[in-house]
Amino acid sequence: MDEFPPGETVSTATAVSESDQALAAFPTHSGIVARFWRRIAWRKIGIFALSIFLFLLAITLMKEGAKALTPLVRDGFNVTNPANSLGFGWLFAYLVMSGSPVAAAALTFFDAGVISQVSTFTMITGSRLGASFIVLFIGFIYVLRGRNKAASLNMGLLSLTVTGITYVFALLVGLTLLQSGVLNHVQLQSGALLNSFTDLIFDPIAALFLTFLPRWTLFLVGLGIILVSFNLFDKCLPEMTIKESHIGHVSRLVYRPAIMFLLGAAVTMVSMSVSVSLSILVPLSHRGFVRRENVIPYIMGANITTFVDTLLAAVLLNNPQAFTVVLVEMLSIALVSVIILATIYRPYERGILTFVGWLTDDNRHLAFFMVTILLVPILLLLI
Q: What residue spans define the domains of the chain?
């Protein structure tokens, strides 16, 4: 029997071996792709797409119905000046238990000529103050159910106090920027193209609604739809646990105010919801990763990027002045927050914590505070 030369035998065996390895590796790569494909959360992607569609539809409907509400807003609610609109936005956020829909409503009122640019700015500010109260209100419900008072109310009190102080100073900065007109020429150039695209899709839907409903009801329908859209958006966010996010490995970072400030801004920008971004702090607090003082810069950062959805609403309206209002709101809050962090953060932190401690130490203090934040927006609306 003929034999192959030693070199040829080795070469053939090597070729066969490499071929077998390649064939064996092929199913492995296919399996990886298949597993990756199966791990994609198609349901959440679908919910996200639906939430965006409903958000765009809601803005269109609210814009169509806003003009018909002019007599009600100006005469019925007496919203005729910036103080009125501040109180109106504040109370409106209490009513709908959310700030973002109220901010979007302010923009549609402005686009319809119901309120002025300055009043739009103050109404959006009021919407954020009202949204902060929601966290406190939920904590108050927990107290009524027998939970620990300090643990239940601290997050809401911190959120409301930090937001209130920041927004008071940001209000002065923002009004100065608006009146100076320094940011009037800063615009998103693709806004008109996006608006034309959405008009093509959603204007026929709005016209269909108008065949069955009075024009003023479109604002209410849009408000309801936008609430649903935000709720759906919350559902499509990924659920992370402490173990999955590996937060334990970087827990030392929470002691740095600048890191927590950036983290609050980033998480809120992704979730487009202050309530969602603050809820992440609850498991961290229970496991001892964050303390009350660590939360303060996080809330400051969250207060800036919570306007991402409002900025999108301004772009959809294709109203340059509306875009300027939201941009000024974000920049004024960012400026005040950065100045506090860079200059007086430690005294500011001690003052906030002392005030919150004073509120939770005595039920009378807390009751007085709750009554005050309910009466202030009513008084502003009556001015």
A: 16-382
